[in-house]
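look at this stuff:

>
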Amino acid sequence: MSRGQSYFIITLIRNRTRQNHHPNTQIRSLTIESRDSESNPEELKSAGDGTASAVSYSEMAKTVSAIMKERQRWQQTLVSDFPSFNFADPLFFRELLKSQHNVLFTLWFFRWVCSNYDYTPDPVSLNLLFGALLDAKAVKAAKSFLETTGFNPETKLLEQYVKCLCKEGLVDEGIQVYTLLKENGTKPSVATCNSVLLGCVKARKLDRFWELHKEMTESEVDLERIQCLIQALCDGGEVSEGYELMKKVLKQGYDPGHVVYEKLISAFCKIENYASMSEILHTMIAWNRFPSLNTYHEIIRGLFKNKKPQEAYCIFNSLKEKGYAPDIV
């Protein structure tokens, strides 16, 4: 039995609702916002001369956020501006995290508080800041934060961390965290498992891919998992196996996706199997998935290279008839 058949059962695909981030969810920006004018230092000081206790955490957080953006050396003046305010209060830190649009500024403030106060960060604040760093895709900063604080994030944050690491190409680190989750008795979600596998594919760690895939016997096989399998088969030289797997997906009524089509087309071009390549190309277009310009070039060049100009010309005309007109080729 082939590797693709032994590791995969197509009937395990379930038509379930995938948990994705809402398209309107805002990701914290890492861009520093510019301002036309700075806050008036005298006005800011007036809030700290005996009346700081009356200022709400929310208002104070907004004021501090503005100061951090406008002053290059805010660390040297913040305490003197607000002598009676306790910047080490966890409640204030959480408000600052909410009001600060640049999470790296909040991380900067966190380090400043830790170095200037007798401050022991509470688990809630640590988890909030770590999660904000992950939301902002500041993976390296999140990794450094985790290493320096040594705290244990919530399980859901660790799973998000695995996804971010693998997406950023830090696959070995992602696998380590994934393994730690399993050792602690956590069953990683399907999405987390898939992110690890996809990371292995992108990093060309195929041996590790198949090892991990064997271990994921309890994890559901969904469409994203199948896409990873097809890509791994193609990269491992088992292109025909990947093609057969794609056919099974199509028979189930699923669209295997743009990445799978292009991976198979490229793989068949390399082994000069232009009949299968042509089949995939037309299937792709039937699903309203058009090849990229690079893939299109690869197809035409391959056909001409193998002295099949007529086939190349037929494909060219067929694509134009279907509304895809790459006239710049």
